[in-house]
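Title: Comparing notes on inverse folding

I've been comparing how different people in this forum approach sequence design from structure. To keep things fair, I'm posting one structure and asking everyone to reply with a full sequence. Here's the target:
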């Protein structure tokens, strides 16, 4: 039926391809890049605006987590019979909800909680900020790299139209 597809791959799939050597992290740039592997074309890019947004979001999450630690420390200081384990559990649960548990450790010094930030784990996670890969089976002769990228970006308009349509515009 000559159907073709244009889709994106996940961060986990990007990591897998990096481990397999299909492409290298150094290739991600503001300019579009492309490779072909086993008949599939991969168009990749690093969006610097999106990288800044993700970095700012990570800093905001850390700030919110620190506020919770401060709140728990104040509670522990004012309530001598309260359990430190409960406070630690609340902080760890919130860190897990924010998906930051890999970057942080909660330390205890008597009844005072502190966050220890793992710079190396955060650096590893942030190297993918703003990176994305578009995958297609369209041959280069049929559609150039820029057109594939543009068609994939057009999906945002389609999604917006569906959201608007479903909000009672019938």
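Reply #1:
Here's my take.
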């Amino acid at each position: 039926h000559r159907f073709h597809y244009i889709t994106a791959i996940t961060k986990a799939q990007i990591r897998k391809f990096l481990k397999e050597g299909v492409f290298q992290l150094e290739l991600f740039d503001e300019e579009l890049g492309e490779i072909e592997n086993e008949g599939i074309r991969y168009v990749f890019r690093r969006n610097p605006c999106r990288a800044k947004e993700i970095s700012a979001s990570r800093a905001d999450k850390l700030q919110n987590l620190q506020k919770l630690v401060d709140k728990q420390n104040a509670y522990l200081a004012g309530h001598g019979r309260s359990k430190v384990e409960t406070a630690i559990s609340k902080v760890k649960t919130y860190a897990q909800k924010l998906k930051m548990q890999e970057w942080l450790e909660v330390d205890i010094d008597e009844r005072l909680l502190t966050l220890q930030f793992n710079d190396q784990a955060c650096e590893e996670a942030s190297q993918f900020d703003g990176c994305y890969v578009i995958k297609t089976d369209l041959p280069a002769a049929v559609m150039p790299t820029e057109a594939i990228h543009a068609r994939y970006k057009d999906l945002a308009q389609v999604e917006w139209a569906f959201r608007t349509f479903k909000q009672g515009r019938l």
